[in-house]
């Protein structure tokens, strides 16, 4: 991933509602969620929800598919993983230090020096 692509993703995620939407879609897995389900889960009005989803779509973090009258949104895991790879590339200058390695558990605890 290039720096400009990473900035697009980070900019899209740098908003409370968009971050919440993206996290909901990640939690939903490959099935994703219908736009109506997202509206119900977040309490966002239709136009506001659409605005935030469009920002995530433009960054390539969300893709959707029409299923009849329903639009189903899904997190783009390849894009998400690309962003994570970009952020952790050369972590601690490639050191094999275990304390430096990103944690898969979701823990974001800082290590003290």
The N- to C-terminal Cα distance equals: 31 Å
SS-based class: alpha+beta
Write down the overall geometry.
elongated
Number of strands: 3
Please work out how many helical segments DSSP would assign.
Answer: 5
CATH class: Mainly Alpha
CATH superfamily: Winged helix-like DNA-binding domain superfamily/Winged helix DNA-binding domain
Which stretches are poorly predicted, pLDDT < 50 over at least 5 residues? 107-113
Strand content: 5-15%
Specify the biggest β-sheet.
3 strands, antiparallel
Average per-residue pLDDT, rounded, comes to: 86
In order across it, which strands form the biggest sheet? Answer: 1-3-2
What name is given to the CATH topology?
A: Arc Repressor Mutant, subunit A
How many independent structural domains? 1
The succession of helices and strands, N to C, reads HHEHHEEH
Pfam families: HTH_20
GO molecular function: DNA binding; DNA-binding transcription factor activity
Keywords: DNA-binding, Transcription, Transcription regulation
Protein name: Helix-turn-helix transcriptional regulator
Model description:
- The structure is a single chain.
- The protein has 113 residues and is an alpha+beta fold.
- It has one domain (3-100): Orthogonal Bundle (Arc Repressor Mutant, subunit A), CATH 1.10.10.10.
- It has five helices and three strands.
- It has helices at 3-13, 16-28, 35-42, 46-58, 77-88, and strands at residues 33-34, 62-67, 70-75.
- The chain has a three-stranded antiparallel beta sheet with strand order 1-3-2.
- Helix 1 packs antiparallel against helix 4 (46-58) and helix 1 crosses helix 5.
- Pfam families: HTH_20.
- This is Helix-turn-helix transcriptional regulator.
- Residues 1-95 form the HTH arsR-type domain.
């Amino acid at each position: 991933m290039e720096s400009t692509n990473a900035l697009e993703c980070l900019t899209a995620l740098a908003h409370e509602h968009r971050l919440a939407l993206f996290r909901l879609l990640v939690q939903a897995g490959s099935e994703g969620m219908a736009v109506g389900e997202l509206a119900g889960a977040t309490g966002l009005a239709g136009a506001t929800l659409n605005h935030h989803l469009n920002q995530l779509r433009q960054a390539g973090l969300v893709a959707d598919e029409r299923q009849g009258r329903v639009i189903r949104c899904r997190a783009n895991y390849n894009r998400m993983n690309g962003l994570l790879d970009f952020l952790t590339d050369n972590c601690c200058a490639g050191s094999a230090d275990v304390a430096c390695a990103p944690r898969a558990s979701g823990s974001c605890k800082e290590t003290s020096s």
